[in-house]
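Action item from last week, closing it out:
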Amino acid sequence: MDLWVCCGSVLNLWTLNATAMRWLIVTLLFTVLGSPTCKKQGGVKLPPCIVDKIEAIQQQPKYNPPATVYRYLYAGSYVYLFSANCCDQYNYLYDRDCNIICAPSGGFTGKGDSRCSNFKEMATDETLVWKDTR
């Protein structure tokens, strides 16, 4: 007798009828593929405004180089660094409410706007949460 433990329940696969098996498969697929209300990118749950910014980028022509969003731990909070569309533009760092904190890189000098010059030294836990793969 084959028993599976799934979501805290023991399932006897031999006693499931066709309707129950279809329901189980659909449920498992939905769980594996993710709920449409769950906004995760790169395995990281993102604040709604960050998701909105990513979706806005996807409506534009593809950036060159491709757009990226990295999450960092900086000054005790998670922050999100969006790459700029092209050359000599600031790469803005946003808090979870999409307020611009600073531009740690980019611009004509490549060193950002100097409002968070310690970002490279103080930021930790770098995680790529989204890259435009179009």
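Closing note: The longest strand covers residues 124-131.
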